[in-house]
Amino acid sequence: MKKFGKYLVFILIALVVAGTFAYLFKRSRPQEIRYEELTAEVADIVKSTVVTGKVQPRDEVNVKPQISGIIAELYKEAGQPVKEGEIIAKLKVIPDMSSLSSAQSRVRLSEVNLKQARTNFDREKALYDKQLVSADEYDKVVQALRQAEEELKAAKETLEIVRDGVSSSNKSGSSTLIRSSVSGLILDIPVKVGNTVINSNSFNDGTTIATVADMDDLIFDGNIDETEVGRLSVGMPVKITVGALQDVVIDANLEYIAPKATESGGTNLFEIKASLQVPEGITVRSGYSANAEIVLQTAAQVISIAESALQFDGDQTYVYVLGDNGYERRDVKTGLSDGVNIEIKEGLSLGEKVRGNQIIGEK
To answer: Which domain holds residue 228?
Structure first.
């Protein structure tokens, strides 16, 4: 039994040694260098660039109040359509105490002036009826009475506007009713009932009640590197792909190229904008991230090969072409490249075989 165990150990050792020699022999064998064989073919070479950016409405309008106050009611929500002049919210006015005091003082002064004007009128009318004063004198008193009445009316309306935000004679145009200034879709309502809002003045921009935009007029907004902007021109076709919309390509037209660059991370970038032509049934939301593919140059139906087949010797470009005696060097003149394939203008004919990338295999 012990003798059998010894034989088994010797056999295992022999197998390990033989396997090691076989592995080392296999690794030491010379490898044959082979090459991928490529064929010169006719193809369209398209050089394009991809610009990252986002989709947004051409114009977003911020609806702001004409007076300061508190949001009493909200009649609309984000995502709802709205027409020009349609009410979005209603305000409860918080009167400015200085303005309120001034308006009240004006009303009191107007009442005093009106009382005096009526006294003058009554006195003058009695004299006029007795033909003791001229018609011109009487007309002046009548005019003064009318002016005093109008002044009191205007003072009371001013007081109502300061105190209530609306006058009794113009309730339909109340500044407490916040109306949309354009037709479109409500993108955002950043306020809630009970929030205090202020109107725009020389010290601040005012509180935004709602943001409204026409979602049927969308643009792509992005930035392109200065090395490529020189090849762009207004009117060029653009293909827009939106990450949130799978397998959807939207046609667009380039309509704006910034005349001035902005620096970002040491790189000069130029803003570009393209108008979208969104197909029916496709919903595009404001702020979607998107890529714009712009064709910079095209070479149609030209002889081309994979760019990886090219070799370089100084300023000279060449390839290895399969001949009767194997692969032979031949100088070529290249044209447009799309990053994968390249146009061959001279030195290569259609159908010729060209040496490509190296392939390592066993002999």
So the answer is: 50-57+215-298
pLDDT band at 363 (very low <50, low <70, confident <90, very high): very low
pLDDT tens readout for residues 110-155: 888 888 988 888 888 888 888 888 888 888 888 988 998 889 888 8
Domain of residue 254, CATH code: 2.40.30.170
Query: pTM of the predicted model, to two decimals?
Result: 0.64
pLDDT for 8 equals 67
What is the Cα Rg of the chain in Å?
42
Question: What CATH number should be reported for the domain holding residue 314?
Answer: 2.40.420.20
